[in-house]
Amino acid sequence: MDDTTASQEFRYITKKRRVTEDRRFITGRGHFAADYNFPGLLHVAMVTSPYACAEIKGIDATAALALPGVRYVLTGAELFENINPLLSGLDLPNVKRIPLAHERARYAGEWVAAVVAESRHIAEDAVELVEVDYNPIDFVIDPEEAMQSDAPLVHPQHGSNILCDKTWVWGDVDDDFASAPHNLSFRAKWSRNSTVPIETFVVTAKWDEGKDVLDVWASIQMPKYPEQIARALSLPVNAVNVHFDVDVGGSYGLKRGIRQTVIVSYLTCKLRAPVRFNEDRLENMSGGEMHGPDRIFDMDVAYNDDGVMHSLKIKATDDAGCYPGRAPLQLGKPVSAIVGPYRIKSASYNAISVTTNKTSQEAVRGFGQAPTNFAIETMVDKVARALGMNRDEVRRRNLIRADEFPYRIPSGSEYDSGDYHAVLDKLQDSAGWQELLAKRDALRAKGKLAGLGMSTCLEPSGGNSSFEPFLNPKNDTTTWMESCLIKVDMLGSITALMGTSTSGQGHETLLSAVIGEVLERDPDTIRGVHAESLGALPSNSPVGSRMAIMLGGAAAGAAEKIKKQLLEIAAHNFQLPVERLVYDGGDISVDGDPDKVMTWNTLVDIAHRNYHKMPLGSEPGLQAQHTWEVPTGGALPAEDGTVQMYPCYAFEAHIPLVTIDPDTGQVEILDYHMGHDCGTVLNPDIVRGMTFGGIAHGIGAALYEKFEYDEGGQHLSGSFMDYLLPSSHEIPHVEMIKHYTPSPLTTFGQKGSGESGYLGAPAAIASAVNDALAPLGKSIETLPMRVRDLEALINGQTE
Amino acid sequence: MSEHKITLTVNGREMSGYAEARVTLVDFLRDVLGQTGTHIGCEHGVCGACSVVLDGKPVRSCLMYAVMADGHEITTVEGLEGPEGELSPLQDAFWENHAMQCGYCTPGMLIATHTLLQENPYPDEAEIREAIGGNLCRCTGYQQIVEAVQMTAKKIREAS
Amino acid sequence: MKAAPFDYVRVSSIDEACQALADGGEDARVIAGGQTLIPLMAMRLARPALLIDINDVKELSGIAVDSDHLVIKARTRQADTLSSEIVQEKLPLLADALSHVGHTQTRNRGTVGGSLVNADPSAEIPLIAQTLGAIIVARSTRGERTIAAGDFFDSAMSTTLAPDECLTEVHFPIWSPENTGFGFHEVSIRDSDFALAVAAAQTTLDAGGNVQKLAVAICGATPAALKLTDIEEALIGTDLNDDIIKVACAKIDDLIDPQSDVHADAAYRGRVAKVMARRAISDARDGAKGDLV
Ligand code: FES
Ligand code: FES
After folding, report:
1. How many angstroms separate the alpha carbon of residue B132 from the centre of ligand 1?
2. pTM for this model (two decimals)
3. Which superfamily does B89-159 belong to?
4. Which chain A residue lies closest to B143 (C-alpha atoms)?
5. Interface predicted TM-score (ipTM)
C-alpha cells in the first residue's frame, strides 16, 4: 500500500483528524492528578536515606510530630506489620518489597519514612526533624562486582546478588559458529536512563466512609493497578476505585507507583482524611524507583565473507538496582525480536539480572528492546566495517525478505508482516543517501569529524507479555486482554468505555475513530470515556505498544456487535433476512429498494422504547462489549525454550548525519531521516508525534541521559540540572517517510507505535558517531556518548 | 512566619489570597487561586512547565515567590482564549498540528510561543526553537510544536 | 522542594534596602530576579531568614554611559541588557555573553547584579566583568565603596561583598571601537546548560596588526572567573597568529585546578578551557583585523 491506497479504504481512520484530548490541554483544562483538590487534604513528604546501604536501628519522630500541622510519621516497620509485600515479577520468596525501607535502606535516596502534614511545606519542614539512627554497612554499585562471591549482599536472605541467570540456545549455535569463516565479538554498554516524564508520579487516596470504598486518583499507567492495591491492603478489589479519567503527564511505560499508592492508601484509611503524595523532582529521580535498563552486552556474531550473518550470541548483564522491579522481565522482552529484522539462523541468549545498591528499575519504553537493538545494530556495523562493506548493503543481505512472512525467528516468535527492503530503499531514496555521503565527505574534507549513521530495527507491539511465564515458570499467565463497552443511548449518541488512563496516546480519539469507522458514524459525535475501575471492563493498560491493536480491536469488536444488533432489529421489522439488508451510515435499507429504510434514530428508538418491535427474546437497549485476547497470545512458552511474544512487528530505519567537534566532543545532528512502517496508521498525527518523541528520547539516551552514581553509592543525577533531557536545541527536524504493510493479525492491519523512534534512534546516533570516528581508527560502544567521553577518545586521553 | 495578603490580576481578573512568603507563584496560582492550568515539572527552574506571563514577559512561576508578584499582572494558559471562549490562533494551531501528547508541557509551551509571536510575529524555525529552548517536552520531540508556531505565524502574515 | 520559612520585606529605595540589610544581620539576603537563589532555597541549600525584595527600587535599574564606562544598575534585567542598543554598541562582548545566559524566561527576571553577586563559577556576566576589569559599586548604611572585579570574586558562589552591602551598579570600561574585536566561546553539554568551560577575550590591534591591548578571562573550569594576566602580557605586541595563541594558552594548565563533577572530569574541563581561550582570542583577533581591512 502506498499513502493513497492506505487512506482510501477507510472513512475515518488513517485520515487526518484532530485529537479529541488536545482540546482540554490547550485551554489549561486537563485534569492531572495534582489538579484534584479535596477539603482537608494531607500531604506526604519522604525522609530519604543518605546511605547506599544502612541498617535502620531506630526512627525518632518526636520532634517532627511536635511541629504544628504535622499529622503522622509512617515507617517501614509499621507498613511491614500491616500490609502485604508488593508483587515481584520473579519467583524470589526471600526478596520482600514493601513501600518504605524496613530494617535496611538499600540505596541512597530510598524512602525511609513518610511524613504527613497539612501542607507539603510543613511536611518538608518535619522531614528535617525526623531522626533516623542508621548503621552504614557495605554496599555494591558495580553489577559485575556484585556478582563476585565476596560482594556485599543487597538482600542477604536471598543469598546472592544474582536475581536471574538464564541461558537459552535456539538452533545450532555452536555448529553455525564453527562453520562460519568469520566471527567477531565486542562489548557494548547501555547506561541507566529512563523516560523521565515532565510530571512526576502523583497519587491521592481517599477512603469513602459512606461507601467503604478507597478512591484513588493517580498518574498511573500500569496493568492490574486496582488489583495490586487491593492485594497489598487486603481489600476486595471491589473496594478500590481507581479514577482512570485522570490525565497522566507522560509515562512511556514508567508510571507504576504502586509503592506511592500503597503508602497514601494506608494513610488515608488510618488518618481518615484524603492523603496526597506528589513526588517532587528530587524524590522522583532518586527514590521513585523509576530508572530503566542498565546493561552490559557481550556480543558474538558469526558471518560469511559476503556479510551474511549466521548466528549470534548475546550475553546481557543488567543492573536491576535494589529490587527486581521490572528489571528481569525487561531482559525477557527482547527475546521477542532477539535477532532483530535479520535472517539469523540461530542464537543464544544469556540474561543475567543483578541486584546492586541503586534505585530499582521500572518499565521503560520498549521494555528492554531499545538497548538490545542498539547492541544488534552496533554488531551489524562492525561486521560491515570488518569486511569493508557498506552498512546498507550488509543490512540488505540480512534483512528478512517480504516474501518470507510470516517469519519464525529462532526463539519462536513469528513476525507477522513487513517489507524491510522496501522501507530501506524508500528511505535511502528520499533521504538522498548518496548526497548525504557526499555531504559527509565534504565536511571531512574540510577537516571536520562527520558521520552518517544507519539503523534498521523492530518494534514488537501488541503486548503479549509472555516474558512473564517465560522467566517465571510459577506464573502461568497467558491472558493479556483488552476490552471496550459501547453504549448507544436512547437519543442515539454513542459512548465507549475503556478501563485505563491516558498518558498522551489519544485513546478517546482512537475509540471514536474506530467505532465511527465500523458504525459509519461521525467520530466527532462519539465519546470515549476513561471509566473508573469499578465501572470498567478488564484492561492491561497501554503497555507494550498495544492500544492501537488491542483497544482498537476491542472497540471494533464491540461496534460490530452493535451493528449486528441493529441489523437484527431491522431484519425483524422488515421481515427479511439480514443478508437482504444494507447498512449505510447507521441507516438500514433493503437491498435494491432504497426507499425502504429504517434510520439510525428509528432503530435506536426501537431498541430502547419499543420492545414490541424487537426480535423475540432479544436484549433491550443497545449496548455491547467486546473483550479479546491478544493475537498469538494464550499459550505458555514451549518446552524447548521457544516462545511467541508479541503479535505485531513494526519496522523503522534511521539515517542521521552528525558532526563532532574534535576539541570539545560536542555532537551536532545536521540531518535526520527516518522510515517507518507500522502497518495501517489509525491517526497519522498521533503516530508522527509518538515517533518524533521517541527519536528525541533516543537521542537523549544516545548522547545525554544517564543516572550516575559515585563510588560512595550516592546518586548524582537527582535533578534536572544533572539529568539532561534534550531540549528543542538538541533535537533536529526529522524528515519521516511512511510505508504501510498491514498486519494480518489485527482489525485494520494496524501495528503499535508507542515505542517507535526510541527503538532505533540510539543505535542510529551511535552508528553515525562511530562513522565519524572511523577515519581516526576509533570507536565507542558505550551510551550515552558524552562530550567528555568523545573528546577524550578523539584526543587519545582515554586509558 | 509571615503570612501575606497577595493580590494579582490573573487573566484580567483581580484575585487575592493569603500565603506565606515561601509559597511560589505557581503554588499560589494552583493551590490558593485554583488556577491549575499552569503545571509543575521540576520546581527548580529547568523545565518551563510553570511558564506564565508576568507584566507582558514570559517567566517561570516556580522561580518567583507569590508575594513578589503582589500587585502584578499574570497571564496563564487559561487566559489565552478570547472573551467568548474562542481559541486563539496559536491554540488552534497547536490543536491542528497535534503539538502535544500528554499535554503536561503544553501550557508552558503556549506561554513561551504566545509571547514569542507577540514580540516577533514572523519567527523562523531557529527563533522558534530558541523561544521554547527552556521548555522541556518529553512527548513530542518538539517538531509538531514548531510546526504549530509556524502555522500561526503564517496565518498572522496572511492576515496582515 | 519547598523553601524553609523566611520573612519578606519589599523596599523601594537603596537606603531602605541597606537599612533592612543592616537590621537583618547575616541571614538577610537581597532578592531581585532570584533565578539562582530560589532553586537553591527550594532544595534548602540556601536558607536566608529574611528576603529583601528590591524589585521596586527604581534607582537600581538602568543603563547609561558615563564617559569611558558603561554603567549598568544592579537590578537591570538581563533581557533588557541584552536588547539594549547601548550595550550592543559599546559592549558587544557583554551582549554576546548575555545571549548565553539561561533562556528568555530566566533572563526576563534575572538581573546583572544578581548574577555578579551569585558568582556562579560558570556564569557569563561575572566572566565579562573579570575580563574587562569592571568596577563594582556597593552600598551599605556604612557608606559606599567601589570594588575592582579582580577583588570581588572570591571563590565558587562567593564574593567579597559584606553581608550588609547591597550591590548597586557595575561599571564596564568601554574600549575604543577602532581595530577592536572580541570573542566569546563556551562549551556546554546542552545548549542552555551551565558551561563546562567559558572564555572571553577582547583585543585592540595597532595599525600593523599587533596587539596593543588584550583582555582574556576564563571560567567554568575555575572556582571563579579568572583573568589570564600572564597570557595577556605574553601576547601584547604579537600578531596573534594561531601558533602564538596556542603556546600562550598552554600556560592555562599551570593556572587552573579544575574540579570533577557529574558533567565533566577535571582533565576534560582543563583541556576545553584551553580550547575555549584559544577560540575566544582568535575570534577577537579576527574581529579586530576585520576592522583593519
Ligand atoms: S516547574 Fe518551573 S521550571 Fe520546572
Ligand atoms: S506533551 Fe507531554 S511533555 Fe510535552
Report:
1. 13
2. 0.97
3. [2Fe-2S]-binding domain (1.10.150.120)
4. A733
5. 0.98
